[in-house]
UniProtKB/TrEMBL annotation, chain A:
The lineage of its organism: Bacteria, Pseudomonadati, Bacteroidota, Chitinophagia, Chitinophagales. This is Membrane bound FAD containing D-sorbitol dehydrogenase. It comes from the Bacteria. Residues 138-157 are annotated as: Disordered.
From TrEMBL, chain B:
Residues 483-613 form the Glucose-methanol-choline oxidoreductase C-terminal domain. Belongs to the GMC oxidoreductase family. PANTHER family: PYRANOSE 2-OXIDASE. This is GMC family oxidoreductase. It holds the Pfam family NAD_binding_8. Its cofactor is FAD. The keyword Oxidoreductase applies. One of its GO terms (molecular function) is oxidoreductase activity, acting on CH-OH group of donors. Coiled coil: none annotated. Residues 279-389 form the Glucose-methanol-choline oxidoreductase N-terminal domain. It comes from Chitinophaga eiseniae.
Length: 157, 626
């Protein structure tokens, strides 16, 4: 139980620099727990624990501060054959709500026990909470409607 | 049920069938309506209607490709075509989807076989056709003239605008060659226009004064707010409560509000009249309006007179039966399936005095062909048309914030008519409010590109997306297709569905008349983009399903969802399937309704016209029943 909470905290902590959204903004989507469990469910406990260990380490020794943090995210996560695809998927999960299939090469090397790797929205709510809509000054198409005539002026935020 | 004879049997509960059902039942006629779609879609009680619609919405949220049919159940016993099934055709028929596509190019539009029909996922643009659209042969030496003209249709357009609930400011509507009395003195629409988008405002400003050359002529293109079937602020000057049958005059009439103080009330969701009284800006009209601020045919069906209407769902009409001595129709054979995808079904025959086919252009044609009906002209299934949509896209200089509001709120009507129609197709250009969604799959494809290829993350990613997605501009050039004999729907015993009914087999191509319009409209687009400083990102890859070339240039067109022309209206039994009354030449008690009757396409989206025609057809049925 404790491990899960710590894992979730780590997951959210690394998601902040990965997405460019604050911890509060990420929590406000209401999706953090679901995404955390979804990734764990798909890539399995071992891979998830590895990933969280690396990210915790990055956050700790960079003191969660750019530019060191950015460099470490690039070098240790995005450039890594093991962690790169998972990292990119987590970014896209936050922005769009859907899981993308991990590439075949990744599956062949690291994918023992991977389950449910097909392209899918985590839930209807995941689609509705995608950060991409905020990023473009809009709202998810088909949800959180901003009201009559709102489209005729620039977004207020 | 099988033994009862109704006044009228209708096949299909889309807008065409629903208008006929509503008009006839309100005039006191007994109507049986057969609908191929699921029973759940027919629920009109508050709970049932809401629950079913929430299921549609859930499917939409979860769908990876949010294509028009994504929210709606695809039932094997009454399949719907899906744009995702479209591929390039290389020599042999493509049988992957519901359509059997013979090509050479795939037919690019779909429809929904569910209660309410394709208006569930239409956009709602409600333009009238122009006077010259009805006389293409006389004016431009192209195709055919209709047996009716704009003046004939005008009162029915008003009925259709009332039924759909069209929002529009009449004084802003300027079209080429519209004549001095296009709308009639003092005419107003039920509701004021839907506010034009922030993109529109920038676009209109950018376009202002720009001169465009086309075939040696100079045009100054202008923009017009688009009439739409979605709810806006009621216009207090609007005076009509509805449409009714005047039995004495034997005529359909618009009925004024009984009291002067009454005003038009927007028609809300079928589960709650107060939901959806205004368009709330969900920006998902295609494929689904969550609050039903956008019109769909369930609204019309709900307002039919219940005591006179018998609905049979999960009931697929398979054949009309013909008395060979009189040519009269004696029944509609159907198969009723107990649940979705079942191989089993119960057969039956529905009987009425008059029969109305309203299953949409392709399904109507299929039914007629399966029944060996309307054979004299050899026109059934032929002249299949759609608007062939050339898209162009780019980045505006400033942020215009697309992905908000209804799909399109403004159009360029300048090229809807003109003497160039002697040489090439006319077109209308809606300005799209949803970024590059249609051609490139934005916004998630942009996200994937940014993360996977550009290696962006964090604030860089957020800023990149914020900039790219808020500057996306998309223009449509919806080019007219002429009626051609070889663009056609046929049937074959080789291609049957889950319960042994025919699948549509389609032969389809684009002629030079329309290709010339691709070239011309692309040149107009280039001039507009250059004049406005739009960074052009348009590309027409040769591996797209509807890739074609003209004059050394490649083009990709897309379907508009405007399925038109398979049982055209005409002047004689030899040149057409129905007469000007929409009655089959060969079968006096058979009426065909829907866009299949349209002799030519023009540049307006067809539904307002087919709705107007459906009122006219209902009037003719009422006259025939007397
Ligand atoms: C993406 C998209 C956007 C569109 N946008 C616009 C727009 O902005 N403006 C516009 O004017 N038009 C638009 N259209 C076109 C519009 O949706 C159609 O013209 C219109 O809905 C056709 O109405 P209909 O009643 O003739 O046929 P449909 O709506 O297709 O209804 C036919 C009905 O018959 C039923 N049926 C079919 N076969 C059988 C059978 N054998 N037995 C029993 N029942 C059967 C079906 O289930 C359905 O309920 C759009 C279409 C698409 C696909
Ligand atoms: S913009 Fe939204 S509320 Fe308005 S019609 Fe479209 S989906 Fe419905």
């Amino acid at each position: 139980m404790e491990k899960t909470t710590a894992g979730l905290d780590n997951f959210i902590a690394i998601s902040v620099p990965l997405t460019g959204y604050s911890r509060v903004a990420l929590l406000a989507t209401g999706m953090a727990t679901d995404y955390y469990h979804a990734v764990r469910r798909i890539i399995g406990d071992d891979r998830m624990d590895d990933f969280l260990a690396v990210t915790a380490d990055i956050l700790q020794h960079t003191h969660d501060k750019a530019p060191a943090l950015d460099r470490e995210i690039r070098q240790q996560l995005l450039a890594s054959l093991q962690y790169g695809p998972v990292t990119r998927n987590i970014i896209q999960l936050w922005y769009w709500g859907a899981w993308l299939p991990l590439p075949d090469a990744w599956i062949a090397k690291y994918g023992k026990g991977v389950k449910g790797n097909e392209n899918h929205f985590i839930s209807p709510a995941a689609y509705q909470q995608g950060l991409i809509w905020q990023a473009m000054g809009s709202h998810p198409e088909g949800s959180k409607q901003p009201g009559f005539g709102s489209w005729s002026i620039a977004p207020l935020s | 049920m099988e033994n009862k004879e109704y006044d009228v049997v209708i096949v299909g509960s889309g807008i065409a069938g629903a208008i006929v059902a509503k008009t006839l039942t309100q005039a006191g006629k007994q109507v049986l309506l057969l609908e191929a779609g699921l029973e759940a879609g027919m629920a009109f009680d508050t709970d049932g209607a809401y629950k079913n619609y929430q299921e549609y919405l859930r499917s939409y949220y979860l769908a990876l490709a949010k294509v028009p049919n994504a929210p709606y159940p695809d039932v094997k016993d009454a399949e719907s075509p899906n744009v995702l099934d479209m591929t390039q055709i290389n020599g042999k028929p493509d049988t992957k989807g519901y359509f059997v596509q013979n090509g050479p190019l795939p037919f690019a539009s779909d429809y929904a076989r569910a209660a309410g029909g394709t208006t569930l996922h239409w956009l709602g643009t409600c333009l009238r056709m122009l006077p010259n659209d009805f006389k293409m042969h006389t004016e431009y030496g192209q195709a055919v003239d209709w047996p009716i003209d704009y003046e004939y249709l005008k009162p029915y357009y008003e009925m259709a605008e009332r039924e759909i609930g069209v929002s529009c400011d009449v004084q802003e509507q300027h079209y080429p060659n519209m004549g001095g009395d296009f709308f009639g003195k003092d005419y107003v629409f039920p509701m004021y226009k839907i506010p034009q988008s922030y993109i529109d405002k920038h676009f209109i400003e950018g376009l202002n004064g720009l001169k465009v050359s086309l075939n040696g002529d100079v045009y100054v293109p202008w923009c017009t707010s688009t009439p739409q079937g979605r709810n806006s602020t009621p216009n207090e000057k609007y005076r009509y409560a509805g449409t009714g049958w005047n039995a004495t005059k034997k005529k359909l009439e618009m009925q004024p509000f009984p009291k002067r103080s009454e005003v038009y009330e927007p028609v809300g969701a079928i589960w709650d009249p107060y939901a959806g009284q205004r368009c709330e800006g969900n920006a998902s009209c295609v494929p689904i309006c969550p609050v039903q601020a956008k019109y769909n045919a369930l609204k019309t069906l709900k307002s039919a007179k219940k005591e006179h209407l018998t609905l049979m769902s999960q009931t697929v009409a398979t054949e009309i039966q013909i008395d060979s001595s009189t040519g009269n129709i004696t029944g509609v054979a159907y198969k009723q399936y107990p649940q979705a995808d079942s191989k089993e079904y119960v057969s039956g025959i529905a009987k009425g005095k008059i029969y109305v086919l309203a299953a949409n252009a392709i399904e109507n044609a299929k039914l007629l062909l399966a029944s060996d009906a309307c054979k004299t002209s050899d026109q059934v299934g032929r002249n299949l048309m759609d608007h062939m949509v050339l898209l162009t896209w780019g980045l505006m200089k400033e942020k215009v914030f697309p992905f908000r509001g209804p799909g399109s709120t403004t159009n360029i009507p300048t090229f809807r008519d003109g003497s160039f129609r002697k040489q090439h197709a006319a077109w209308i250009s809606p300005i799209d409010n949803w970024g590059w969604g249609w051609p490139t799959g934005s916004p998630d494809t942009d996200l994937d590109h940014a993360v996977s290829t550009l290696n962006l993350f964090g604030n860089d990613l957020k800023n990149y997306l914020g900039d790219l997605l808020s500057r996306q501009l998309l223009l449509h050039f919806e080019c007219e297709q002429l009626p051609e004999k070889s663009n056609r729907v046929t049937i074959s015993k080789k291609y049957l569905d889950n319960i042994g009914n025919y699948r549509p087999v389609i032969d389809y191509n684009v002629s030079d008349y329309t290709k010339k319009a691709f070239k011309a409209s692309k040149s107009v687009s280039d001039q507009i983009f250059a004049g406005m400083g739009v960074q052009d990102f348009t590309s027409y890859p040769s591996n797209e399903p509807d890739y074609t070339t003209y004059d050394g240039q490649g083009y990709v067109f897309r379907g508009a969802g405007h399925v038109v022309g398979t049982h055209c209206m005409g002047t004689t039994a030899k040149n057409s399937v129905v007469n000007r009354d929409q009655q089959a030449w060969d079968h006096k008690n058979l009426f065909l309704v829907g866009a299949g009757n349209m002799a030519t396409l023009g540049t307006s989206n067809p539904t307002l016209t087919l709705a107007a025609l459906s009122f006219a057809a209902a009037e003719n049925v009422l006259k025939a029943l007397k």
